[in-house]
Amino acid sequence: MTETTAPAHPGKRPGRNAFFFVLVTVFIDHLAFGLIIPVLPQLIQELAHVPPEGAPLWIGGLAATYAVMTFFFGPLIGALSDRFGRRPVLLVSMATLGIDFLIMGLAPNIWLLFLGRALAGISGATFSTANAYIADTTSPEERGRAFGFIGAAFGLGFIFGPVAGGLLGEISIHAPFFVAAGLACLNFLYGVFVLPESLPQDRRRALNLTRANPLGAARHFAKLPHIAWFLVTSVFIFLAAMVYPATWSVYGEIRYGWSPLQIGLSLGLVGIGAAAVQAGLMGLILKRLGLIRTVLLGITVSMLTAFGFAFAGRPEIAYAIIVVNALGGVTMPALNAVMSRLTPADAQGELQGAASSLNAIGMIIGPLIMTGALYAFTQPGAPIYLPGAAFLLSAALLVLALLPFRAGVNLNRDALPKSGG
User: Fold this and answer.
1) What distance in Å separates the CA atoms of residue 91 and residue 188, rounded to the nearest whole number?
2) Contact at 8 Å (CB) between 365 and 61?
3) pLDDT digit string, tens, across residues 301-337
4) By CB distance 3.0 to 4.6 Å, which of 157, 160, 187, 294 could disulfide with 334?
5) Contacts of 297 by beta carbon, 8 Å cutoff, 6+ apart
6) What pLDDT, on a 0 to 100 scale, did the predictor assign at position 10?
7) Ranked by mean pLDDT, which of 34-38, 201-205, 358-362 comes out on top?
8) Is residue 415 part of a domain?
9) Residue 3 lies in a domain
10) Does 280 map to a domain?
11) In CATH, what number is assigned to the domain containing residue 109?
12) How many other C-beta atoms can be found within 10 angstroms of the C-beta atom of residue 7?
């Protein structure tokens, strides 16, 4: 990667080792999260004393708790990284993530699960700060591909995490939480010794509390319509994408009778597809289609596959759709690259913080409406039995995402590249 900043710590440069650490951080973050997905429904059933059909509402509440905390703290974390640097934010986030999983693994009741998710949401700046770190250390022309590597690390986490979680869940439904906590703590120690700072002193900004709150950040970027339209697009995309973390594990159990191991294997296939597309094909797709058409490709594929999942009555059909759905993973890396191009170099952390908070709106509402749809259409006496109802809702939201995206493109035709990344 092209380095565009001076080293913030004497004798250290944010080169390959630092870039690798950021990738490992994102990988472990999502590996740890993937570990718990296959067993979370069973843990909720045990702690809340509900049947499988009753678990979706609790899962939605846990996801919404995480998102509410991210909404309120995301801009502050982004602003802190602009003021004090990316390194301390990444390290604190990793340490808190370890504490979160330890609390969840030891929780004797459902309410301690909510406490753990709240702590994780407060420190949930890993992804946005990692994006800011990449923006610090790459040229504008390289960022689309670099963000693709971040997406690939996310995918790799979902290759190994759910599969390992399913296997560990066969031993104990608590075991994946303890393994996740250990991985987060190990990565924290790795970062202490390896990670240099990417943001030099002369590019740091004073902490502005008006901009460092969620509404202040939204108002700031609302003054720049070209940024605001793309941020609205990301809200719709995140809202639609919540169907997978919010409902997949329960959906698989209800519709296909899957065990935690089978759920983990299906999510592992999701991760393999995401990694293959984002690490292996992202650069080629960007070169052939450019940023704008790459985003359109991703939204279209995600919309069609969500519709397919809604009516996939057999597990082998669902597996086939998972393979195709991998192409949808190009959407957010390309959209992040679009927004990064239109943002000054000294505001990259603030951009990612604002994006994190606005996307958290989708993460707050999304799990609630997706799990609500699954719950409403799988209960006795439902007007129609349709476990895939949440996927139909997801497809509709992706259609809506095209509207603000097109508006943003029309406002920025001169500022955006005609082709390439």
Assistant:
1) 6
2) no
3) 999 999 999 999 899 999 999 999 999 988 988 898 8
4) 294
5) 285, 289, 327, 330, 331
6) 39
7) 34-38
8) no
9) no
10) yes
11) 1.20.1250.20
12) 16
